[in-house]
Amino acid sequence: MSESANNNIQEAYNRWAEFYDSNKNKTRDTEAIALREMLSGRYFDKCLEIGCGTGKNTFFLAQIAKIVTAVDFSEEMLAKAQLKILSKNVTFKKADINESWHFIDGIYDLVTFSLVLEHIENLNTIFKKVETVTTQGSVVYIGELHPFKQYTGTKARFETMSGTETLTCFDHNISEFITAASASGFVLEALSEYADDDSATPIPRILSMTFIKQ
Description:
Rossmann fold; seven-stranded mixed beta sheet; 7 helices; 9 strands; about 30% strand; single chain
């Protein structure tokens, strides 16, 4: 991904931060449900949350992990999260995951990606980085806009006073996630698809997966 495209995504999320929690957003809300269901009843020592945004999942992760490193590359999103999440076991870090992972604090037994990987062009490079910060038995959770939704043209977007702003996104099919994970030593543990309750079509909105490191 070009530096200009990456900067555009970052700037868009900075603008979106003002409205992110208040705007109607089925993708945000459904992914939050998916993460809680996929990780319910499990407990971890250290969690690396990639794409914490305004903290929609951070509070829950702080309840199931002793330590949480919450990462986002939007300073405005992070500012919102830090106002809401006061848990002492959470540390917020501003970082671009396309760059060196200087925000790492040891080895993690849970890594989560929430609505992040649609903005990443090459999944293999990210999984290679995850491989270096995890150990055997570590869990990776991924919650993304479902590829079927992507194929219909749906992308991350938000409403502003001047109209709809659409972010740069990359389509990734299910096999692409699994192949990239496998290449870095992770095997698929579970896969779930979440559709809108009020939808007249069967197309799911969210794809969620957990992987285990071998």
